[in-house]
Amino acid sequence: xxxxxxxxxxxxxxxxxxxxxxxxxxxxxxxxxxxxxxxxxxxxxxxxxxxxxxxxxxxxxxxxxxxxxxxxxxxxxxxxxxxxxxxxxxxxxxxxxxxxxxxxxxxxxxxxxxxxxxxxxxxxxxxxxxxxxxxxxxxxxxxxxxxxxxxxxxxxxxxxxxxxxxxxxxxxxxxxxxxxxxxxxxxxxx
Length: 190
Hints:
The chain is an alpha/beta fold. The protein has a single domain (26-184), classed as Vaccinia Virus protein VP39 (Rossmann fold, 3-Layer(aba) Sandwich). Helices cover 27% and strands 28% of the residues. It has five helices and eight strands, in the order H-E-H-E-H-E-H-E-H-E-E-E-E. The protein has an eight-stranded mixed beta sheet. A hairpin with a 2-residue loop joins strand 7 and strand 8 (177-184). The protein is globular. The protein starts with 25 loop residues before the first helix and ends in a 6-residue tail after the last strand. The mean pLDDT is 92.
């Protein structure tokens, strides 16, 4: 696992030990950032269920102005911080939150945060998290009006076309993973 592009290109990333974290492959991450390529620089980026921080660190490396990474695991948060240091990105504006994702969504929303890009990667072993997560994101105001949200799931997991203000506009399958893309319902551009 590595940083694909930007100022930390080719730097190696560590992953937390154990089965709780299933890091995104370089192939999937590269495809995601190819889809978002013109949106990342100067963006406000939210990475939920961050694990190793691979996706948030990729955004930092590619010029995001603010990256917020959220994970409830103590070891995951320690690895994220270590990866940021090893990639020499600690001077780039970021927040690493050791917090339950649902609490973080409420807290960030309550503080008025807005994000241009949101990436969510709940554990495949907990499919019961997906619906409440999407409902929380769809009923909140974290996504900017021209923003995009991507959530990775197992290939066979179906997600609704709409959650509150969020409307699905794209899907892509990568082996056993499936990426669902959402935007605000009043936004008709991809």
